Amino acid sequence: MSSTALPIRRLSLLSQMMIITALAFSTVMTHLAEVLPKQRPQASTFAGDLIAGALFAVTHPTSVRNLLADTVVDLIDAGAGAGTLVFQTSAAAEVATCTFSDPAFGNAASGIATANAITDDSNATGGTTDRFIIQDSNSTLVLSGSVGTAGEDINLSSLGVGVGDTVGVSSLSYAAPV
Description:
The chain has 178 residues and is α+β, with helices and mostly antiparallel strands. 20% of the residues lie in helices and 22% in strands. A hairpin with a 5-residue loop joins strand 1 and strand 2.
């Protein structure tokens, strides 16, 4: 009988955590299917799939939240240059573009990464902004969200930006899910 050596692949810590999370999710779903036979969820084709109607309270320890935050914000540093924060209209037209430092963020603490200095756009295209995108220097989308004057992902003092205005960001942070 001959044996074939299989190549061993080392998984990153994030990959290992994703596998453990998927296995734990699968175990919980199997248990729910046994305990709640009348409300049995449909079988998932992948352990990480969300199943309609299933709600779970998930809590990440600070070390995992730091890892998640650092992983996300480090994506902004991909490419040869600095990433950008682009303010857009509802029709995705550029209003203003601010440039991150390179690296864009410092290391996360308590699950929150704070941006290093962000360069103002001193000659804005202008318009009314209601959303933003953050992309790396290759224009690959990393994050997107809403813009408003209160209660949004990014809050500005004014949503209306004139042609040639200066748009700046005094502080920006990314918080990993609890």
